[in-house]
Amino acid sequence: MKAFQAQSLDSINDYKLVDLPAPEPTGGELRIAIKACGVGYVDALVALGRYQVKPPLPYVPGIEVAGVVDALGPEAKGFKVGDRVLAMGVGGGGFAEQGLFSAFMTMKIPDALGFAEAATLRINYITALYGLRDRGQLKAGERVLVFGAAGGVGIAAVQIAKLLGADVIAAASTEEKRAFAKAHGADHLIDTNPEGWRDRLKAIGKVDVVFDPVCGPLFEVAFRSLAWKGRHLVIGFAGGGGKIPALPANLTLMKGSALIGVDVRQYTIFQTAEYNATLHELLAMIAEGRLAPVAGKRFSFAEARAAMQFALTGQGLGKTVLEIP
Fold first, then answer.
1. 279 lies in a domain?
2. Do residues 130 and 267 touch, judged by C-beta distance below 8 A?
3. Which pTM value belongs to this model?
4. What CATH number does the domain containing 158 carry?
């Protein structure tokens, strides 16, 4: 089989198209013929060795895939060859024609759900639902501010917040991005130019929950703009230029508000049953026609390096997807 693999993590150009033996499933593993792999900002950071967790070498990127089961280990139950599925491999392996994935971390998908859209669910949409509802305790009628609202996890948060009955402010850097968020349900739009930003936000009203995958220059001012008992959800650091923002601890006391971390990777590890239940909920929302996952720009398998480079720019609308024939 063919895969994009690197022997070092110095550059995206280290990733080469190589021939590898087709893996054979053992135990409770499934072998999946991969049709689509999500490519997010964090995926690209991991591939370059710039994330908190560095992958082992040699490394094949991609942890969030969708495809078709083509072989089963002897202990894999509940699946058969030909099943359309989505899966997650915590050690990568998605930039390949085939991959091994635990049956426990694999779920069937309906025929109506495309592979590209399915490859966005396990990280972005679970982060949005788990973050807003479970960590942020978002209630119907509350107002949520979503930073990076046109990105993969941001647009998921816009959609999920609307499903939870919230009033949604979409914050994004360009008119195109704000229009994209509006098309997917945002009630209010705000640009992210720091000059006069807090006044523009005040004109919309108080914010109960901040969903923040950016944590950039507006981090502290957004926290200061929270209503009493507000919740600021820290999703990631896409906009800090490598710097992690700080917050004066007394602000939490003065605002009666909370700063809350949301890490889907640890949710997977420490609350696996709840994680899988959340995914089942999302699939039910899709089956009922209440949720339509958004796949962003699509790249062919031969364009794997370009897909990672594009994901790093933060310019995409929705989550970037690598399609594999």
1. no
2. yes
3. 0.94
4. 3.40.50.720
